[in-house]
Amino acid sequence: AQSVTQPDIHITVSEGASLELRCNYSYGATPYLFWYVQSPGQGLQLLLKYFSGDTLVQGIKGFEAEFKRSQSSFNLRKPSVHWSDAAEYFCAVGGGDDKIIFGKGTRLHILP
Amino acid sequence: EADIYQTPRYLVIGTGKKITLECSQTMGHDKMYWYQQDPGMELHLIHYSYGVNSTEKGDLSSESTVSRIRTEHFPLTLESARPSHTSQYLCASSELVERGEQFFGPGTRLTVL
Q1: How far apart are CA B105 and CA B36, in angstroms?
Q2: Environment class of residue B30 by beta-carbon count within 10 Å: exposed (0-12), middle (13-18) or buried (19+)?
Q3: Residue B63's Cα: distance from chain center in Å?
Q4: B51: closest CA of chain A, how far (Å)
C-alpha cells in the first residue's frame, strides 16, 4: 500500500538559513511525487512535482526536491528561507489510480 | 481568472442541522475531490468524481454525500451534522489526464457544536 512519512512534525530555522524537509514514501511501482505548501487558513498550493526524468526538480518560490529511488526519499530543499516561507508542508505520493496519499505534514517556523 | 472556490470559508452550526459545503471551479476540470483534514493531520480523501453524474467514495469513510450535476460544481452535504464532523474540508480539481495536478480551494472550516 502507498504511504508517505514526514518524520519531522516541526522544523525551526533562522531566516536566511538553508532548509531541508524530509519525505519518505512507500510504493510498489514508480511513484509520482508532490510537495504542497499550506498557509494558515488556506488551501494547498503545489510547490513542485516529480513524474519521471531528471531526479532534481525545481519548483516555485526557490524550492527544489531530489528523488532518490534507492532511499525512497523525496526531500525538499531551499538554500535560504524567508519569513514568508513559514507554513505547513505536505509531501504526497500518487500512483496509477490518480489518488494521492498525503503525509502528515511538517510545520516550518522561521526565526527572525 | 481560472480558480476553485469554496463557500462558506467558516461555518459554526448546531448538532442535527443539515449543511451543504459548496465547491466550484472555473478551470473546466473533469475530476473533482473532497478531502477532510483534522488539525495537524494529513488530508484524507472522502469523495471524488470523474465527471458529471460520477461520484465515488474515497479512502476515508464519511457520512457525507456528494453530487455532480454540473462539471463546475461539486457540493458536499451532511444530512445531520454531529460534533465528530468538525474538521476542515478541502475541495480540489484536476484535468482528466493521467497524473493530473490537483488544484485546491481555500477550504471550509466546519465546527459542529
Answers
A1: 13
A2: middle
A3: 13
A4: 14
Task: Give the residue on B whose Cα is nearest the Cα of A99.
Answer: B45
pLDDT above 90 (res A17): yes
Q: What is the mean pLDDT of residues B27-56?
A: 91
In angstroms, the Cα distances linking B103 to A29, A48, A49, A95, B34 are 24, 12, 13, 17, 12
| CA A91 – CA A81 distance, rounded (Å) | 18
Pull the grid cell for residue B57. 467514495
pLDDT digits 0-9 by tens, A34-79: 999 998 878 899 999 998 888 999 999 999 999 999 999 999 999 9
Q: Are residues A90 and B31, on separate chains, in Cβ contact within 8 Å? A: no
**C-alpha span between B113 and B44 (Å, rounded):** 22
